[in-house]
Amino acid sequence: MHRSRNIKIVATLGPASNDYEMISALFEAGADVFRLNMSHGDHSEIAARHAIIRKVEQDYDRPIAILADLQGPKLRCGVFANGSETLTNGQSFRFDLAEEEGDAKRVTLPHPEIFAALRPGARLLVNDGKIRAEVVECGPDFADCKIIAGGEISNRKGVNVPDVVLPLAALSEKDRRDLEFVCELGVDWLALSFVQRPEDMVEARELAKGRAAILAKIEKPAAVEAFEAILAVSDGIMVARGDLGVELPVQNVPPIQKRLIRKCRSAAKPVIVATQMLESMIESPMPTRAEVSDVANAIYEGADAVMLSAESAAGQYPIDAVKTMNNVAVEIESDPNFRVIVEASRQIDYKGVADRIVSAARELAESSDVKAICCFTHSGTTAALVSRERPRVPIIALTPFIATARRLCLWNGTNCAVTGEVDRFKMAVVSAARAARAMDIATPEDQIVVTAGVPFNMSGTTNILRVAPCEERLIFSGEPS
Of 32, 189, 238, 246, which cross-links 67 as Cys (Cβ 3.0–4.6 Å)? Predict the structure, then answer.
């Protein structure tokens, strides 16, 4: 099954997409990666979804990536005696550690870490920013605030603190249990929420012990400020625009998204654009024009993947949502302006032999009648470098390791295949030709570019390139290619 577009689609699973029939239908519609949201569902439900995905993978004989999204710390206010209260602009309101039920003047905020970090002038945002309060005076167990934007506040609404770095680890005790469970289960990617500093990613990596690649969700201003350091210790990035749009002025989010995508591409690390991409399709079979433009912009900007959340997890039209995203991607990538924009944004500092080899492969593919760039890879690094080039032809990533093939499903343009170990370059070319034909990317009359590293079976040794025929007889005959 060869997709007719390069950007990947991440589909979240949930109550609306919980059985084999629906998950296989989502895969056929265009989903390349399935997201397991650890905020919803117990371990038995997560394990059942994981098993179904692996059954779909087996039945379609194509690697599928599974992304487990850890919940992260949840900051919420306490409960109210009346269930809710209405706060008005300009009034005073206190958040504190007292255990009494809240009223129109105060409510519990059971997070001493917040009070330890607050300072006068800092903001507290409640219920996705619908209520905004500014700290006037604070101490180790209270914050007296002025309500800037009022409204109804009710039991256990979420609280955001955008102006300070909170002394909270990105991994809660629940996250630690979930991380160990999904790593033993065999997921390919972990998404870490509430990232504020690179140390958060280092901690997650130590706990994962190489069993899954680690992806940082950028959803806090502190993460934006420390982005380059976070990117350096991450395997990938998710631009999580939900909380980011709450904690920052909404007009700041689009340029941040563009900047982060470019930095990820330069570093050859995949980036997912997420949150509210086709949100109206939770209840409607058709998206809004603005949502289509939002997906299109992420594709024009060069993202590796776009993500569906509630649209596929709990919406009424999960298959339609995936099909819509797929159709938008096909249309945008066929636009001549798309190639102009993507190629103009290729800002790469070529340093080593591998960088130069994959650059030469891309130039060969664009200047001759070559149908695909085929790369042999153990760790996935070579395929990631080829993906960074955003070539005009498909990328076929061949690896002897199913774990590597699955992880590479997140990279833009990659078509992943598991192949046996090879010890000679000629056999690597044969395997590449067979894969290109099997995927209907090339015919025996076509040519492909093959990259690999000699000696074989060693990571990071990409040092050879050949333009080869797809006809095995010609490969073995030694005729010029």
Answer: 189
Average confidence (pLDDT) over 369-385: 93
Residue 480, pLDDT score: 43
CATH of 84-160, one of 2.40.33.10, 3.40.50.300, 1.10.150.910, 3.40.50.11740: 2.40.33.10
Burial of 180 (0-12, 13-18, 19+ CB in 10 A): middle
Give the pTM.
0.93
**Does residue 217 carry a catalytic annotation?**
yes
**Confidence check: pLDDT of 478 > 90:** no
Task: Provide the percentage of residues in the chain whose pLDDT is more than 90.
Answer: 85
pLDDT value at 481 more than 60: no
Rounded CA gap, 49 and 343, in Å?
38
CA-to-CA separations, 126 to 86, 149, 331, 355, in angstroms, rounded: 13, 10, 39, 47
Q: Active site includes 76? A: yes
Which one from 5, 8, 12, 35 is the annotated catalytic residue?
35
**Residue 221 has what pLDDT?**
94
Give me the catalytic one of 5, 217, 265, 406: 217
The catalytically annotated residue of 275, 324, 381, 462 is 275
Q: Where are the beta strands (DSSP E) in 337-446?
A: 370-376, 395-399, 414-418
